Amino acid sequence: MNSCITGLQWGDEGKGKIVDVLAEHSDIVVRYGGGANAGHTVVVGDSTFALHLLPSGSVRPNTICVIGNGVVIDPDILEKEIDKLAQKNITLTKRLLISENAHVVLDYHKKEDQLREDSLGQNKIGTTIRGIGPCYADKVGRSYAIRMADLRDLKKLKAQLGNIVEYKNKIFAALYNAEPINADQIFEKCKCYADKFLPFTTDTTEFLHKSIADGKSILFEGAQGCLLDLDHGTFPFVTSSNASPLGMPAGCGVPAKMVDKFIGVVKAYTTRVGAGPFPTEQDNEIGQYIREQGGEYGTTTGRPRRCGWFDAVAVSYAVTIGATDSIALMHLDTLTGLKEIKICRAYEINGKETTFFPANTTKLLQTECIYETLPGWEEDLTEVNDFSDLPLNARNYIVLIEELTKKPVTIIGVGPKRTQTIFR
Ligand code: GDP
Ligand code: IMO
Ligand code: MG
What we know:
This protein is an alpha/beta fold and 424 residues long. It has twelve helices and 20 strands. The strands form five sheets. A ten-stranded mixed beta sheet has the order 9-7-5-2-10-1-11-15-19-20, with helices on both faces. Strands 14, 16, 17 and 18 form a four-stranded mixed beta sheet that branches. The longest helix has 23 residues, at 154-176. It is globular and about 65 Å long.
C-alpha cells in the first residue's frame, strides 16, 4: 500500500503529524518537493521535532527516509536537523537516502531571496527567505545550478562555483548595490557538504522502484499545500514548486498510478503565512481566537499565521486537482469555544455565484464568500478517541465538510500528539 499525503490549503495543515502517525505502518517515507521552507511538526511524548528537510518518518527508528530529486536541499539546515535528532538518540546513518539529482541551496540563493523581497516593499511575496525561489530558478535555468551529484567532483565544482558566483555578484551589485559573496568560502562549505552527505547520496529513483517491486510500503510526503502550487495555486503568492500531488511523480520518479491512496490534509479552518488572497480570512477577534487556541505561529519563521474560516470552495478545488481519496481534518479541537462556526460553501465574483475556485489573484480579490453558519460546541475534544463521542455539533460540522467536498473525512486531529487522532 502506497499513500501520498499532501496539504489541501496554504500549508501547515498538520502533514507532519499525519505522516508520522501513518509511518508506523510504512517501510519508506519520501519527501518529493519544496525545501527548508517547510516546517513539519512531529510530537512524540514530551519531545517536539520541527522537520524542514527530513521526511517526517525520520523520528521512527526503522523507517527509511528518502529525499527525492524534487527537493531543494540546504545542507546547513539538513546537518542541523540530523544533529538535533542525534541528540535524542535518533540516528539516520543507515536509513537516509538523498537523490543525486536534488538541487543544492547555497548562501547566494538565500541572499538573493532576501534582497529581492526587500526590494519589493509592499509587493513582496512574504517568502521564508530560505532561498527556495532562487534555487528553483537556477534549476530551470540550468546553466548556474548545482546538484548533489556535483559534490562528487570537487575540482569541477570549484570552477562551476567560480562562474556562478561571478554571475551572482554582478546581479547583486547592479540590482541591489549589495556586497559581493566569496566563491572560496562557498567552495570550502561544499567540501564539508561532500564529506557529510555523499555517503547518503544515490539514485533514489532506482531505489524506490526496486522497493516497490519488493512489495515495500511507501508514504510520499508533500510539503506546502495545493494552493501554494506554482502552477495551480494563487500565483504569484505561491512557492516555487508543484506543491500539489501533481508534483509527486516529477519530484521522486514514481508515477502517480503507483500510489494507492491520496490523503489530503486540511485544518478545520484555514491559515496562510505570507502575502496573497485569502477569501475567508478573519482579520478580527475570531482570527485572533483561532490563532491563540491553535498556536498558529509559523514552524519555520515564527510569523503569526493569518487565520479564517474553512473554505470548502478552495478545498474542493484542491481535492479535484489532487485526486484526493479521503481527508484528514486536523485541529478540530481548536474550534472549541466558538459560538458559531462558518464554512464558505460558494463564492460570488462580480455578481456570479461559483463553487469552482479560481486560481487567479485578481478574481480572488473580488470574491465575496457565501457562508453556512453552524452552532459551535463548548466541550474539550482533546481526549476524544471515537467519532461517536464527539459533540453532535462537531459531528454535524464534519458531515457538512464531507457534503461540500464530496470526500470522506477518515482521520480527525484533536491535538498535536499521535494519540490525539480519531480514525473512522
Ligand atoms: P505541516 O507543515 O502541515 O506539517 O504543519 P505544521 O507542523 O507546520 O503546523 C501544524 C501545527 O499544528 C503543529 O504545531 C502541530 O503540532 C499541530 N497539530 C497538528 N495536528 C493538530 C491537531 O489536530 N490539533 C492541534 N491542536 N494541533 C495540531
Ligand atoms: P509546510 O510544508 C506555509 C509560503 C511562504 C510564502 C510563500 C513563498 O510547513 O506546509 P517560499 O519561501 O516558498 O518562496 O515562500 O509560500 N510557504 C509556506 N507556508 N507552510 C509552508 O510549508 C510553506 N512553505 C512556503 O510563507 O507565502
Ligand atoms: Mg508547516
